């Protein structure tokens, strides 16, 4: 297989949570591989836009709060109106709430489920309809978690949502593989992001986590880009329903 199998020239990627962290790193990685980017998020996109346009690719910002149950088909229509099509969807946006299970509130349950699972399904549905209408298939990449495989503590709704992402990835792959749409997921390990700030600030938890990671360190967001490019490219055309860990060896321990 030559390098052309990994090129994304002429493709348009819709990336949620693209303004910071893992989403920003994924958007930049896809742009380096040749894709134009429609970024979805609540905050400013200046750094992401600079990273994308610095690669000579187009960038279109879509401001939306997935926790507010926005018009998800409208997000896809916005991307198509600006960039012509949607070939790749990366469902990266996610939130987390921390509390003991005995104290966990319905609000913290619902907020996380709306962003981490409900929005993923209905945005995937809208994107898949667009991919089928324009022809040529497409790629959907969900962001799972180590909590898709493990239980964790004090993050009931996050664990449930990421376990749901694992099942949803397989279901959509079963339904859409024969229609030319690849649905797969990446399961990041412990990365330096806003969602892990509390863990990194807790000396005991930070020490315990690092002791379990064979690589001996937290991951940096750009280290997720390679897996995203692979799953977005022709190199993964026969990969369906997979969950690819990028975890410094955490699950192998």
Low-confidence stretches: none
**Contiguous helical run count:** 8
**Could you tell me the strand content as a percent range?**
15-25%
**In which range does the helix fraction lie?**
40-55%
Structural class: alpha/beta
CATH class placement: Alpha Beta
| Full CATH superfamily name | NAD(P)-binding Rossmann-like Domain
Give the total of beta strands. 7
Question: Can you tag this structure with a few keywords?
Answer:
single chain, 253 residues, 7-stranded parallel β-sheet, globular
What would your notes on this structure say?
By secondary structure, the protein is of the alpha/beta class. The protein has a single domain (3-247), classed as 3-Layer(aba) Sandwich (Rossmann fold). 42% of the residues lie in helices and 15% in strands. The chain has eight helices and seven strands. The chain has helices at 21-32, 46-53, 72-83, 106-134, 156-176, 197-201, 203-212, 225-232, and strands at residues 12-16, 36-41, 59-63, 88-91, 138-143, 181-188, 243-246. It has a seven-stranded parallel beta sheet with strand order 3-2-1-4-5-6-7, sandwiched between helices. Helix 2 links the parallel strand 2 and strand 3 (59-63). The longest helix has 29 residues, at 106-134. The mean pLDDT is 96.
Short description:
This protein has 253 residues and is of the alpha/beta class. The protein has eight helices and seven strands.
Task: Please describe the topology of this protein.
Blueprint: E1 12-16, H1 21-32, E2 36-41, H2 46-53, E3 59-63, H3 72-83, E4 88-91, H4 106-134, E5 138-143, H5 156-176, E6 181-188, H6 197-201, H7 203-212, H8 225-232, E7 243-246
Parallel strand pairs: 1-2, 1-4, 2-3, 4-5, 5-6, 6-7
Helix pairs in contact: 1-2, 1-8, 3-4, 4-5
